[in-house]
Write a structure and sequence with these properties.
23 strands, 508 residues, binds adenosine-5'-triphosphate, Rossmann fold, BirA Bifunctional Protein, domain 2, 17 helices
C-alpha cells in the first residue's frame, strides 16, 4: 500500500488536501493525472451503463436537498455509528472498533484462550458463511483457532449483530474493564449514536429552519426525481437511472488512503422494475457489474469476488444483496454493493411527501410502486482498486533495481500518448505531431531528459504509447517510432496514419 500511496502522491495522482496548511485530515485532491483517471473511469461507466443501453438514463441531482428527504430515507433516524468517549484522555472512538482492537490484540498469540480470543472465534463463526470461513483458512493457511480479523469488522454486520455487540460492550465495560486504546484507563462515558450526515445551513440565517444536510449518498436524488423522469423521458419499466456525484459522510474512522473518506464520489443506479421480476434482475445486474470490472476495466479476476449477504445480514426491506469485493493490499473489502431494495424507498417518499410515486403500466393497464435494484459503487474507491490492480514493477539496471510500470488499460490510462523528440532540436516537428494527436487523444509532450528516462517516466504513469520523433525516420521519411509500454516493443508508423492507428487500438 505504501508503494501505491507514494506513487499517487509523487506523480500527481492524489495529493493531501490543503497540504501547505498542514492538510485537513482525510481530505484528498485529485491531481493532474488523478483527475484524468477518475474522469475516464466515470466516462467508461456512463458509456457502458447509459449510452449503450436503451433502458437507462442519466441524472445529476443537487447535493443539497430538502431535509425531509433524509427523514423519509431513514438517514436522520438511523444513519449512525456508536460513539464512545474516554473520560480520562477525552479521545473519541467507535465503540465497535474498540472491541475489534481488543480481539485483534488477543489473537496475536495463536493459542490464546482468553475471553476475547474465544469470543472472536465465536463471532467469526456467527458472521461468516461456511464457505467464507473455509476460504479464509485455505487462503491464509491459518490454524482453525486463528481468524482473519479483517472479516470481523463490524461494517459487514447486520443491525441485529451490531445491537448484540453494543450490549456486549456495555457488559464488558462493567465486568471485565475495557482499556482505552489511547491511555489504557477504563473510564468510559455512555455510548452515543453519532449521525454520519454533515450539517450546514442554507441562506443568510443560521437558525435550525435553514439547516440542510450534505447528501450522504447520491441515490435519494434519483428516487425523488422518479415522477419527473417518468413524465419526461418516455421510458417504460423496467428502466434505470444512473447518477455520478459527490457524497459526504462524517465517518468516525476514515482511512486506508482514499478507501474510506468523508468526501467521496459515488456512481449509483436505481433500476426500476415490476415486483416479482426483481430477483432475476438482481442476478443479471451482478453479472453486468462484474463484467464491467473484469472486461471493460480489465481488473484481475483473482482480485474480485461476490459476497452474497446471508438472510440475517439483509436489511428488513431487501430481498437480496450482494457485494463485489476487491482484494486490496489490506484485505478483501466491499467495492460495489448490489441491493434489491424492493419498493422501500419510493413508498417511504410517497408517505413523507404525500405525492404519488406509483407507476402506470399503459400496456397492462395497472398501477404499482416499482421495485428497485441498486448497484452502487464508490468512484474514488474504484480509483484505488484500479491503481492497486495496475501497479507492477520490472527489473531495472544491473544491481537488482526495479522500476514501476502502471499496467492500466489504454482506455483507463490518464495520458494515452507521449510525444518525445529524441533531441530538443526536433521540437518543431514534434510539436506538429503533438497538435495533430491532441485533437483526438490526451497527449503529453516531453523533451527533457534521456529518452530511456522519459520512457520510464511514462511507464510509471501508465501511458500505453510513446511516439518518438527522430532524424532518420521523421525528418527523412515522415514516420515516427511507437514504443509500447507493456512489451517495450517498437514499431515505425507513418505520421499520416497515426490518428487511425490509435483510434483502432483504443477501440479494440
Ligand atoms: P462501507 O461498508 O465500506 O462503509 P457502505 O456499505 O456503507 O460501505 P454504501 O452505503 O452501500 O456503502 O455505498 C455504496 C458504495 O459507496 C460502497 O460500495 C463504496 O464503494 C462507496 N463508499 C461508501 N462509503 C464510502 C466512503 N466513506 N469513502 C469512499 N467510498 C465509500
Amino acid at each position: 500500500m505504501k508503494h501505491i500511496v507514494d506513487l499517487a502522491k509523487n506523480r500527481g495522482f492524489v495529493f493531501q488536501g490543503s497540504e501547505i496548511y498542514g492538510g485537513l485530515a482525510n481530505t484528498w485532491d485529485y491531481g493532474p493525472l488523478g483527475s484524468l483517471l477518475k474522469e475516464n473511469l466515470k466516462n467508461l461507466w456512463i458509456r457502458e451503463f447509459v449510452q449503450r443501453r436503451p433502458d437507462m438514463v442519466l441524472l445529476d441531482a443537487a447535493i443539497l436537498m430538502n431535509p425531509q428527504v433524509w427523514v423519509a430515507s431513514g438517514h436522520v433516524g438511523g444513519f449512525s455509528d456508536p460513539l464512545v468517549d474516554c473520560k480520562s484522555c477525552k479521545q473519541r472512538f467507535r465503540a465497535d472498533k474498540i472491541i475489534d482492537g481488543l480481539i485483534e490484540n488477543h489473537l496475536k498469540d495463536d493459542s490464546s484462550d482468553s475471553y476475547y480470543a474465544t469470543r472472536a472465534r465465536e463471532l467469526w463463526v456467527e458472521t461468516l458463511s461456511y464457505d467464507e470461513r473455509k476460504n479464509d483458512l485455505l487462503n491464509k493457511q491459518l490454524p482453525i483457532y486463528w481468524i482473519n480479523v479483517n472479516n470481523l469488522i463490524s461494517e459487514s454486520w447486520s443491525a441485529e449483530m451490531q445491537v448484540k455487540f453494543l450490549e456486549e460492550f456495555e457488559v464488558l465495560k462493567e465486568e471485565r474493564g475495557v482499556p482505552c486504546p489511547n491511555c489504557g484507563e477504563c473510564n468510559w462515558a455512555e455510548i452515543k449514536k453519532f449521525n454520519l450526515m454533515f450539517k450546514t445551513s442554507q441562506g443568510v440565517t443560521e437558525d435550525s429552519s435553514a439547516m440542510v444536510y450534505l447528501r450522504p449518498e447520491t441515490a435519494q436524488g434519483i428516487f425523488v426525481d422518479f415522477p419527473n423522469i417518468v413524465r419526461t423521458c418516455r421510458r417504460r419499466i423496467p428502466f434505470g437511472v444512473a447518477q455520478v456525484g459527490k457524497a459526504f459522510r462524517n465517518e468516525i474512522t476514515p482511512g486506508n488512503f482514499i478507501f474510506r473518506t468523508r468526501e467521496f464520489e459515488q456512481m449509483e443506479i436505481e433500476y426500476f422494475c415490476e415486483p416479482g421480476t426483481d430477483l432475476e434482475l438482481h442476478a443479471k445486474w451482478k453479472k453486468d457489474c462484474m463484467n464491467f470490472l473484469q472486461n471493460t476495466l480489465s481488473l484481475n479476476s483473482e482480485n474480485l469476488r461476490f459476497r452474497d449477504h446471508d438472510a440475517d445480514e439483509l436489511s428488513f426491506y431487501s430481498n437480496a444483496t450482494t457485494d463485489i469485493e476487491y482484494k486490496f493490499p489490506f484485505g478483501w473489502w466491499e467495492l460495489w454493493g448490489i441491493a434489491d431494495r424492493t419498493d422501500f424507498d419510493l413508498k417511504a417518499h410517497m408517505t413523507e411527501s404525500k405525492q404519488d410515486m406509483s407507476y402506470f403500466d399503459p400496456v397492462k393497464n395497472t398501477k404499482f410502486i416499482p421495485y428497485v435494484i441498486e448497484p452502487s459503487i464508490g468512484l474514488t474507491r474504484l480509483f484505488l482498486a484500479t491503481l492497486c490492480d495496475a501497479y507492477d514493477t520490472v527489473p531495472d539496471g544491473e544491481e537488482g533495481g526495479e522500476r514501476i510500470v502502471l499496467r492500466l488499460k489504454p482506455e483507463v490510462a490518464p495520458v494515452k500518448i507521449a510525444v518525445l523528440p529524441l533531441v530538443k532540436k526536433l521540437n518543431e516537428k514534434a510539436e506538429e505531431v503533438f497538435h495533430m494527436l491532441s485533437k483526438h487523444f490526451m497527449t503529453w509532450y516531453d523533451e527533457t531528459g534521456s529518452i530511456g528516462k522519459r520512457y520510464a517516466r511514462f511507464d510509471e504513469i501508465g501511458t500505453p504509447w510513446c511516439v518518438t520523433i527522430d532524424f532518420d525516420n521523421t525528418l527523412e521519411k515522415n514516420m515516427v517510432t511507437i514504443r509500447h509500454r507493456d512489451t517495450a516493443e517498437q514499431e515505425t508508423v507513418a505520421i499520416e496514419a497515426l490518428v487511425e492507428y490509435f483510434q483502432t487500438a483504443l477501440n479494440s
